[in-house]
């Protein structure tokens, strides 16, 4: 049995628990996990019996046949053709009533309308959300997935090294991001999620997308990279100072590193996401920085650079329940939130695998605040 058929078998067991007769997946990460190929403008229909039908653009048929694991594939020329191909699969699979799972947390209303259009879905088939089911299915990474995550982490280290080696006053944030992204491509990345680079007062921004701001001597620079290697991502963040940091900046950075290391140390089987969040935030709060925290400090990493598990509050807004205690093989990024003082911020982030004997750190680029100018 292929790895994808094994995953589909586990998916159908969960579908049975949720009384789903089929799922229609359009989220690339979910498709990739179950059939080995996830691309835009495509879908995969999986029945409770484990039969797989894919619909892809006519232009992509040969590519999908070479990459994906399926029973049937249909090509279409446009959205109308896509709708008709879905209707064809409902008829072919003998599903004219029952429940079909669709990804509420991923689909905007117009896309949802396509999948539930009267010319696609039989009237007696009721759509329900399969987001929690797919998140549960993908939560624990197997050995092959962890190898891919480790490869992505090595590429993240290479991208960070290049960015920090090349960083100089006068460069723009965009140019720093470009150095990291070039190195990641050369090291094996086929893609990357958005690279964050923020400098000076912009380090006080939660998600510092690069701008044309030029770096100045004495600036703090926050860099966060997310390469994708063989379909899997890693998350690595570092803050450096172009020259000598102030005493206050160095103290905040050392406090952040302390909080990060304490939290990483607790990433063992059975730990609760809430406990990890309390540990990291607690260090900041005890040091008088309660008002300088924004956002959850931890999130899952896998096919996507941010996925389940998520802290309970964050999970709610992603359409998911609070996660259970973490099992061995769950992979998380710790350090997702920064410490934002108002004038500047600091942030360090690493990718970690939860283990029976404790954490396994995947990203290894050294933490160093001051860099030469």
Protein described:
This protein has 373 residues and is of the alpha+beta class. The chain has helices at residues 3-17, 28-35, 61-67, 79-92, 109-115, 131-138, 143-166, 173-187, 247-265, 273-286, 312-317, and strands spanning 22-25, 43-47, 52-57, 72-76, 97-102, 124-129, 191-199, 220-229, 232-233, 236-242, 298-300, 331-334, 339-340, 345-346, 350-353, 360-361, 370-371. The chain has a six-stranded mixed beta sheet, with helices on both faces. Strands 7, 8, 9, 10 and 17 form a five-stranded mixed beta sheet that branches. The longest helix has 24 residues, at 143-166.
Specify the biggest β-sheet: 6 strands, mixed
The fourth-level CATH homologous superfamily of the largest domain is Creatinase/methionine aminopeptidase superfamily
Content-based structural category: alpha+beta
| Domains (count) | 2
List the uncertain runs.
none
| CATH architecture annotation of the largest domain | Alpha-Beta Complex
Calculate the terminal CA-CA distance, rounded to whole Å: 56 Å
Major sheet: order of its strands? 4-3-2-1-5-6
Query: Per CATH, what is the topology of the largest domain?
Result: Creatine Amidinohydrolase
């Amino acid at each position: 049995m292929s790895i994808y058929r094994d995953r589909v078998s586990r998916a159908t067991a969960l579908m049975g628990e949720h009384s789903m007769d089929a799922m229609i997946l359009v989220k690339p990460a979910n498709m990739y996990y179950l059939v080995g190929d996830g691309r835009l403008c495509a879908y995969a229909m999986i029945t409770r019996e484990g039969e797989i039908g894919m619909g892809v653009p006519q232009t992509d048929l040969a590519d999908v046949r070479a990459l994906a694991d399926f029973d049937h594939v249909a090509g279409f020329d446009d959205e109308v053709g896509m709708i008709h191909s879905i209707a064809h699969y409902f008829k072919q699979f003998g599903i004219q009533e029952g429940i079909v799972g669709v990804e509420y947390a991923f689909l905007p209303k117009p896309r949802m309308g396509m999948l539930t259009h009267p010319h696609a879905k039989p009237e007696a088939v009721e759509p329900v959300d399969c987001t929690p089911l797919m998140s549960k299915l993908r939560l624990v990474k197997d050995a092959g997935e962890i190898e891919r995550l480790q490869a992505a982490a090595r590429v993240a280290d290479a991208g960070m090294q290049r960015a920090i080696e090349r960083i100089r006053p006068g460069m723009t944030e965009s140019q720093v991001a470009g150095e990291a992204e070039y190195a990641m491509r050369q090291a094996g990345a086929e893609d990357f999620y958005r690279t964050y680079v923020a400098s000076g007062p912009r380090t006080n921004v939660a998600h510092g997308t690069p701008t044309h701001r030029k770096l100045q001597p004495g600036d703090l620079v926050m860099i966060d990279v997310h390469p994708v290697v063989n379909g899997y991502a890693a998350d690595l963040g570092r803050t450096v100072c172009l020259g000598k940091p102030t005493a206050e900046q160095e103290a905040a950075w050392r406090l952040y590193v302390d909080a990060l290391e304490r939290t990483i140390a607790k990433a063992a089987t059975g730990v609760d996401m809430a406990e990890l969040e309390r540990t990291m935030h607690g260090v900041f709060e005890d040091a008088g920085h309660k008002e300088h925290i924004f956002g959850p400090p931890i999130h899952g990493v896998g096919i996507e650079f941010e996925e389940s598990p998520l802290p309970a509050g964050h999970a709610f807004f992603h359409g998911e329940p609070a996660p259970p205690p973490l099992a061995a093989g769950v992979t998380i990024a710790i350090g997702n939130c920064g410490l934002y003082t108002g004038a500047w911020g600091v942030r360090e982030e690493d990718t970690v695998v939860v283990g029976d004997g404790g954490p396994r750190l995947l990203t290894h680029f050294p933490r160093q605040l001051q860099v030469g100018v």
